[in-house]
Design goal:
elongated, 4 strands, 4-stranded antiparallel β-sheet, 69 residues, mainly beta
Length: 69
């Protein structure tokens, strides 16, 4: 089942300019790396929380989503 039109959203990094991609069974996307500058608020909080969500379409045009933190 190929998933098409996969787009990413991230709670810390603006990914709106990134192109959508697709994944077929057995495919894998190489690591995607983005930079984030730690803020004083992060230091004060003692941690950095981040969540990325991938959303795409299955062959029946249904939404498929996966989230990682």
């Amino acid at each position: 089942m190929t998933v098409t039109a996969i787009g990413l959203t991230d709670t810390l990094v603006d990914l709106s300019g990134e192109a959508a991609f697709e994944l077929a069974p057995g495919d894998k996307k190489e690591d995607i790396t983005y930079e984030y500058t730690v803020t004083q608020a992060d230091v004060d909080a003692g941690e950095i929380n981040n969540t990325v969500t991938a959303t795409g379409k299955d062959p029946k045009n249904n939404d498929v989503t996966n989230t990682a933190s």
